Amino acid sequence: MNTVLLSTAYLAPVEYYVKLLTYDRILVEQYDHYTKQTYRNRCTIAAPDGPLALSVPTVKPDTLKCFTRDIRISDHGNWRHLHWNALESAYNHTPFFEYYKDDFRPFYERKYEFLMDFNEALCRLVCSLIDFTPHVERTTDYIASPADADDFRERIHPKKDFRAEDPAFHDRPYYQVFQDRLGFLPNLSIVDLLFNMGPESLLVLQACR
Fold it and tell me: Per residue in 123-145, pLDDT tens?
């Protein structure tokens, strides 16, 4: 059974979902020390003017080192409303936003306390819409250098070049609504693929392996 170790991620990029599809067993790390400016609480979508990062605000931990599993979502800045408006503005004219929007809207109306629970619930939704069921578990402790799993906890990262970090991931272009203006934008949030390609999203993920 091949195993991959991933961080939790908010509407993770296409590369992340290729891992969910490729591996028999997925371990999502919950005992790492939480760090900002990662996919743990941010995603990148294709806005009309180019890539746009959306970040979920988190409550500042009481200690310098806090497990990711204990990170709480903040209500600061009316972020749910802002994120939903950004998604609607970016994808309202895609072929499948109208079809899927009622599945996603409740996540921006209901308040989740913990970031991992929010990310996990969104991930389950996305996998169900794409029509595959990965075997996902949370880690039971922290292993710095796992011998029996491929470790992508810090390799799938918004500040790292995915082509250098993950040569096994083959970035396959697909239709994007602003492609004529922006060119193809690779490895965006999974919602970019889903809203543009709908049921064909699974075929794109399979082609990226």
Answer: 999 999 999 999 999 999 999 99
